[in-house]
């Protein structure tokens, strides 16, 4: 490791996040924070950074940039980096190292509590005997369903498979393990099965200041169909998913993933030269979402900006940026 090069654990975590070996906003946030703690330990024991506070800070910013570049739409990632790096303080390298490690530990503890609290809030929207429809894989959405089951409610689920990576299979397995009867359906069958469900529960990768929900591609179409069918839909999202940069008018970048997730090499050869696009996310306008459930309570989408300002202020610094 050079003085400013991220340590091996940071590079490995960045690669795992980029390739979706590490997925789910809370999991990504926790992994990123813990990678910063590992960077702090490595930098405090390596070369010039072990004795130079300025070099130590530079190495931490470089690690933050390396992690930030992996998943542009998953706002929990920069929020985790902000939490840790903004609490990096001290006059000596050891003090700086300790502040990073302490901030990481505090952040992970908050994440653990947040999902439990969110689950209880979301469970209160579900009634005994309800059937819920899910899209993709969201530990926050699962927390609401699992909490309802723990309250003694009988819940069943219709799970969309969620192509092209079929994250719905993970949801189906975890709900089955929680004792929830599951029906797995192809994505294009969602409208048909909405007549048989009482709630739609989805997660979010980020939430814009106007209450728009950025989530796995297909969420917006599901929300429009749910509204037309009169089925309430809620987003379950910890506050690490709130997108503070939207307060200053920044747009949310939608990640475009590799075409190989959509079309294999053999099919590509057979079909020939065609354009293939693979957007990972879409934006659901707030008018199609009934509620956003967080660890701080449930909110109408249009009022989420008030919570965002309370937590993050009017703007959001980038502590990983070059000075």
UniProtKB/TrEMBL annotation:
EC class: isomerase
Keyword terms of this UniProt record: Carbohydrate metabolism, Initiation factor, Isomerase, Protein biosynthesis
Keyword Isomerase: yes
Molecular-function GO terms, alphabetical: ribose 1,5-bisphosphate isomerase activity; S-methyl-5-thioribose-1-phosphate isomerase activity; translation initiation factor activity
GO terms for biological process, alphabetical: L-methionine salvage from methylthioadenosine; pentose catabolic process
Catalyses which reaction(s): alpha-D-ribose 1,5-bisphosphate = D-ribulose 1,5-bisphosphate
Positions that bind substrate: 23-26, 71, 215-216, 241
Active-site residues from the entry: 136, 205
Protein EC: 5.3.1.29
Keyword Isomerase included in the entry's annotation: yes
Extra facts: Reaction proceeds via a cis-phosphoenolate intermediate.
Stated family: Belongs to the eIF-2B alpha/beta/delta subunits family. R15P isomerase subfamily.
Role according to the record: Catalyzes the isomerization of ribose 1,5-bisphosphate (R15P) to ribulose 1,5-bisphosphate (RuBP).
NCBIfam families: eIF-2B_rel (TIGR00524), ribulose_e2b2 (TIGR00511)
Protein name: Ribose 1,5-bisphosphate isomerase
Record organism: Halorubrum lacusprofundi (strain ATCC 49239 / DSM 5036 / JCM 8891 / ACAM 34)
């Amino acid at each position: 490791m050079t003085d400013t090069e991220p340590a091996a654990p940071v590079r490995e975590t960045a690669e795992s996040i980029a390739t979706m070996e590490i997925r789910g906003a809370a999991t990504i946030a926790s992994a990123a924070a813990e990678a910063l703690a590992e960077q702090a330990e490595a930098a405090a024991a390596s070369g010039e950074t072990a004795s130079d506070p300025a070099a130590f800070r530079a190495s931490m910013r470089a690690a933050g940039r390396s992690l930030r570049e992996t998943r542009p739409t998953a706002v929990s990632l920069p929020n985790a980096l902000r939490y840790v790096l903004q609490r990096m303080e001290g006059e000596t390298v050891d003090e700086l190292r300790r502040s990073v490690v302490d901030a990481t530990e505090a952040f992970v503890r908050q994440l653990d509590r947040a999902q439990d609290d969110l689950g209880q809030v979301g469970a209160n929207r579900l009634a005994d005997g309800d059937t819920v429809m899910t899209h993709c894989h969201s530990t926050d959405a699962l927390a609401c369903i699992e909490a309802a089951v723990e309250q003694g409610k009988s819940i069943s689920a219709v799970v969309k498979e969620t192509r092209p990576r079929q994250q719905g299979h993970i949801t189906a397995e975890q709900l089955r393990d929680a004792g929830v009867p599951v029906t797995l359906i192809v994505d294009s069958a969602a409208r048909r099965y909405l007549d048989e469900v009482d709630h739609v529960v989805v997660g979010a990768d980020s939430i814009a200041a106007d209450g728009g929900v950025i989530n796995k591609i297909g969420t917006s179409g599901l929300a429009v169909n749910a509204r037309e069918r009169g089925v309430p839909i809620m987003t379950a999202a910890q506050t690490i998913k709130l997108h503070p940069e939207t307060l200053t008018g920044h747009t949310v970048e939608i990640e475009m993933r590799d075409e190989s997730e959509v079309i294999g090499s053999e099919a590509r050869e057979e079909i020939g030269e065609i354009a293939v696009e693979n957007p990972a996310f879409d934006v659901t306008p707030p008018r199609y979402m009934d509620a956003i459930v967080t660890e701080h309570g449930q909110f109408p989408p249009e009022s989420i900006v008030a919570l965002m300002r309370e937590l993050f202020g009017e703007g959001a610094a980038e502590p990983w940026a070059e000075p």
